[in-house]
Amino acid sequence: MTVVALGVHIVDVLARPVESIPAGQDTHVLEQIRVTAAGAAAGTAVDLAALGVEVASVGAVGDDELGDLLVMIMGRRGVDVSGIVRKPGEQTAASILPIRPDGGRPSFHVPGANLGLSAADVARERVLGARVVHLGGMDVTWGLHDPAFFALLEEARAAGVIVTMDLLSNMPDLVRGARGFLPYVDYLLPNEEQALMMSGAGDAAGAARELLAEGPSAVLVTLGAEGSLVADASGITRVPALDVPVVDTTGCGDAYCAGFVAGLVDGRDVAGAARLGTALAARVAGGLGSDAGLDGARSIRDER
């Protein structure tokens, strides 16, 4: 398998545009409601499949109807879902996202089975057989904060597997806890808030430099409308965002990660892979949900 996306799997239910929560039993008629596969592993996997990258997803869902739905959606999108384990008696992680007219996205969230994902659920041969392993949401998959999983990542990197990592939450204790993964990661892709939390630095550039010293070959900090910042041994490069009308920012970070990983698979340098991530994130921002705007996405891999 070319890429293994390992970590958080969530069902998102999105509605737009939502200006307020109706009082009492009132109803607001909306333009659109969608259900998508989301989360820092599942959302990235779906986007990679849309780019034409062979991808398998590894994670945990419940043995409930939401789990059935998530596995079905991912399979229909072209993701190998054989590495997703079903946890008896647990709920599949889910979010309800009322999207504001400006694209903002408050959320109601149940962490569900993601909290139960453990090193024992991850097949060693699947990780060692990948070209890239993308770790999605290690800040909330506490069961993977395990010496056995770190040893597997170390073995994979020694065998030439590239390891990338994104985060999920904006909770300081969780984000800082994921710092223990940095010696086992080649490329770290947090957003600005997460980078500041993880590092304790006062700005994105300082955060990237500090996190780079922990082991990754490069740190890429996404900055929303300001694009992204790429820090590696040669210094810091700024990659501008594309100017597009924003409908919903859900999944833009996952899309950036997917484009970046696809760029690595295609042999692009770090900045070139970041530009592909930027282009895919811009597509996703133009529609509702983490898989919006992906029709015809394979064509952007040919653009340099």
TrEMBL record:
Keywords: Kinase, Transferase
Highest rank taxon of the organism: Bacteria
Carbohydrate kinase PfkB domain location: 14-290
Xref: Pfam families: PfkB
Example GO molecular function: kinase activity
InterPro entries: PfkB_dom, Ribo/fructo_kinase, Ribokinase-like
Keyword Kinase set for record: yes
Protein name as annotated: PfkB family carbohydrate kinase
Species whose genome carries this gene: Streptosporangium fragile
